Amino acid sequence: MQAESHAQALTETRLAHETHRLATGLLVDAAGRTTVPRQALARLRDFIVANLRHHHETEDAWLWPLVVAAAPDTKGALDELSEEHDRLDSALDRLAAVDLTGTEEPGGEPTGGESVSGEGTGGESVSGDRRHALREAAVAVRDSVRDHLTHEEPVLFPALRHITPTQWEEFAQRVIASTPPVAGHLMIGFLDEAGTPAEVESMLVHMPAPAKAALPALRGQAAAELRALRGDGS
């Protein structure tokens, strides 16, 4: 049973990490593509900021204490990973500060436009200066995430064997219940790309029934938005 729990914890953690790699890499690429609509860029940016913060906050607050209680010798390494989380926060602050609320006139004055929270993939384009600022901030986040996961996974993956099945299930349910409701369709889309159907199904098993019922619609929305972000067909 413990081995089974370790396998599930590894799968869920690996998929979560892969979504971060996929999302941050895509934002860098999309920010450099002038055909990508502003709203799609803004949703991906907001998704990354909200979910990366949530991910490392849940690790610091809930997962690390479980691991340290069972394996005290991991404390030093986990403390170093938490310090990296703090540095990642600074990069996320910079990314979140890029103004994507509207386009600019040639003279630099912002214009009105569609809300960033709109549900379609359309919307105005982003001015050159803002797109450049977005891409620079996105590169910093992507590189920080890649470096951090390179440090974290050799520590965390073996440490997960110290977590009992009950502890992991409770942790996973707390994570799902507290996940920010920001562009949730993108989470489904990235998970589908990161894992096999069986792995994704096992990770989503604790989703509330209404959310499960919405999965086909979320997958369709994600597919359309990811095509727009990747410039497919443009």
UniProtKB/TrEMBL annotation:
Coiled coil: none
Region (Disordered): 101-130
Ranges for domain Hemerythrin-like: 16-103
Gene3D superfamilies: nmb1532 protein domain like (1.20.120.520)
Superkingdom of origin: Bacteria
Name of this chain's protein: Hemerythrin domain-containing protein
